[in-house]
């Protein structure tokens, strides 16, 4: 984290700098401009091409992609995987093809064995809509100075009797997958988990089998670079929650955890500037309620890319 903010910003690649400029224009022109940022992300997801990515990213070659695709087909690991995901895995593993193969195996294994989270996914499906009635699953429009994309998850209805962990996870990973589609070679991701309203009853709803698979996926199967995870509005309950999570998480994951009580908001601002945060956390962006609407617009525009077969099935019922 060393060096001045200006120096860090200068290190962000040209494409990221263009996105920052677009956001600054958005602030000047009001919320319609912020919506343009999300529409630009959706357009990039739809227009993504391997040739374009290779021209932008010199760390990955066509030979790298061909080699990983051949391995997938020979070993029957996601044999029909798209080029954008292959690039995402190579980027997440910093070009290490052997590591990428290991991550790919976990990615396929967990997603195959967890259909309640990773199948029949659409922003319009009943389960995802129900989850969004209980919580926020937001992408933020402005990256951090390091070029990291920020995602926020928070409760909007704290009643634990309405909370379903599988539905919440489905909405969470749907949003994350959409972000990877838009930018397979993103510099990194930062997650904010808001603990306001969280009770032990929410944890009991997890069960044992599902969180074990979900945390394995988070630690070993993500096609992205997870840089930090911030828990905000924490209370003394957080100690008990961490004890419950201990069987599922390793030291590598806990090393990127940061905890902030409601009185320690300034601590969050040391990592994420106010102009990158929603008003809910003392930032200059619109509140989560508004940002969820922008995120949902983005998800709707890339919906057919996330789960084409399910989308076609829904269309056939119309």
Automatic annotation (TrEMBL):
In this chain, the stretch annotated as Disordered covers 1-23
Q: What residues does the CRAL-TRIO domain cover? A: 124-289
Q: Which PROSITE patterns match?
A: CRAL_TRIO (PS50191)
Q: Where is the composition biased (Acidic residues)?
A: 10-23
Gene3D superfamilies linked to this entry: CRAL-TRIO lipid binding domain
Chain segments annotated as coiled-coil in the UniProt record? none
Q: What is this protein called?
A: Alpha-tocopherol transfer protein-like isoform X2
* Organism, as annotated: Thrips palmi
Give the taxonomic lineage as stored in the record.
Eukaryota, Metazoa, Ecdysozoa, Arthropoda, Hexapoda
């Amino acid at each position: 984290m060393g060096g001045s903010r200006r120096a860090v910003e200068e290190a962000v690649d040209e494409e990221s700098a263009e996105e920052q400029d677009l956001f600054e224009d958005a602030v000047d022109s009001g919320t319609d401009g912020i919506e343009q940022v999300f529409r630009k992300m959706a357009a990039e997801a739809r227009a993504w091409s391997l040739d374009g990515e290779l021209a932008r990213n010199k760390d990955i070659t066509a030979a790298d992609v061909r080699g990983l695709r051949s391995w997938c087909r020979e070993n029957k690991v996601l044999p029909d995987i798209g080029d954008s995901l292959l690039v995402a895995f190579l980027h997440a593993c910093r070009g290490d093809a052997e590591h990428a193969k290991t991550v790919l195996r976990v990615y396929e294994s967990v997603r195959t064995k967890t259909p309640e989270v990773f199948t029949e996914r659409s922003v319009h499906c009943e389960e995802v809509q129900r989850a969004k009635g209980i919580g926020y699953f937001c992408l933020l429009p402005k990256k951090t100075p390091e070029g990291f994309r920020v995602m926020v998850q928070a409760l909007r209805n704290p009643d634990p009797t309405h909370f379903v962990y599988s539905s919440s996870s489905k909405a969470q990973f749907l949003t994350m997958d959409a972000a990877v589609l838009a930018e397979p070679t993103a510099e990194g991701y930062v997650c904010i988990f808001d603990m306001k309203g969280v009770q032990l009853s929410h944890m009991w709803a997890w069960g044992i089998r599902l969180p074990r698979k979900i945390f394995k996926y988070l630690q070993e199967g993500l096609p992205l670079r997870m840089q930090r995870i911030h828990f905000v509005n924490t209370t003394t309950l957080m100690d008990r929650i961490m004890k419950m999570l201990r069987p599922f998480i390793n030291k590598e994951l806990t090393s990127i955890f940061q905890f902030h009580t409601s009185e320690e908001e300034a601590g969050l601002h040391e990592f994420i500037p106010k102009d990158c945060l929603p008003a809910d956390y003392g930032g200059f962006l619109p509140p989560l309620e508004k940002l969820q609407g922008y995120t949902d617009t983005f998800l709707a525009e890339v919906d057919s890319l996330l789960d084409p077969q399910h989308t076609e099935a829904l269309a056939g019922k119309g």
